[in-house]
Amino acid sequence: MPNAIVTGAARGIGLATTKLFLAEGRRVAMIDSDADELARAAGALENVLPIVCDVSDEAQVAAMAGQVAKDFGSVDALVNNAGVADFRPMDQTDLQVWRRVMATNLDGVFLTSQMVIPHMTAGRGAIVNIASISGLRASTLRVAYGTSKAAVIHLTRQQAAELGERGIRANCVAPGPVDTKLALAVHSPEIRAAYHDAIPLNRYGKEDEIAQVIVFLCSEKAGYVTGQTIAADGGFDATGVGLPALRQT
Ligand SMILES: NC(=O)c1ccc[n+]([C@@H]2O[C@H](COP(=O)([O-])OP(=O)(O)OC[C@H]3O[C@@H](n4cnc5c(N)ncnc54)[C@H](O)[C@@H]3O)[C@@H](O)[C@H]2O)c1
């Protein structure tokens, strides 16, 4: 049975991705630092291996990778999805905030990949890292978040460059705004309305719409795709700053 590891799997985009992998017949190692939420999510599912792990903690990630390798044998797909958001002006972003965001969003992707890659299936392994449109386009209030996600996009290219000869692909998904707990915490009603104006599809994305792109990139259908970033964002990145005044509707 093919398998996958999904970090940040207890809710949101990670949980939707887990469910889609399960529906396609994969076993899934569900990784999350929130023990209660993980137990709740995994308790309702079959063919899952839930592991409580903070992806920013080297020892915990090493233990997690060892446990998954023991159980799965080799790992077919790794989805580095765990992330935290913190929106505030640059002058209120102290080193502690910066480090907290980088620890999960960037160090977490680096560490998890380093520990899992030695166990990945040569010839057809796939890594998908979750960045954000905030990593593609600069914006206010997210000096740490946006920079962490831009780094994830480049880390993906580094992985693609080095892992290609082992037949392991690495790609990135950059979601636009999706209604999850993370977005609810940082998107005020004003931000929400403004996003609508700047998105050609004129709505937030759904968790499952992001999961579909992730699962596609992990599949054989994307067998010749590596080093790429796909924005699943309703057209936000393609069109830049929206001009509501120029809209016809
Ligand atoms: N929701 C959006 O609008 C949006 C937009 C662009 C990108 N993203 C990215 O998508 C990914 C998933 O976000 P979401 O919206 O589903 O968020 P979410 O908050 O609903 O879920 C994130 C999950 O990651 C877990 N997590 C956080 N830090 C962790 C750590 N150090 N170790 C292990 N697990 C950890 C949380 O416990 C949670 O279960 C994130 O990387 C986020 O930056 C989200």
UniProtKB/TrEMBL annotation:
Residues 2-181 form the Ketoreductase domain. GO terms for biological process: fatty acid elongation. It comes from the Bacteria. Pfam families: adh_short_C2. CDD domains: SDR_c. SUPFAM superfamilies: NAD(P)-binding Rossmann-fold domains. GO terms for molecular function: oxidoreductase activity, acting on the CH-OH group of donors, NAD or NADP as acceptor. NCBIfam families: PRK07231.1. Belongs to the short-chain dehydrogenases/reductases (SDR) family. This is SDR family oxidoreductase. The lineage of its organism: Bacteria, Pseudomonadati, Pseudomonadota, Alphaproteobacteria, Rhodobacterales.
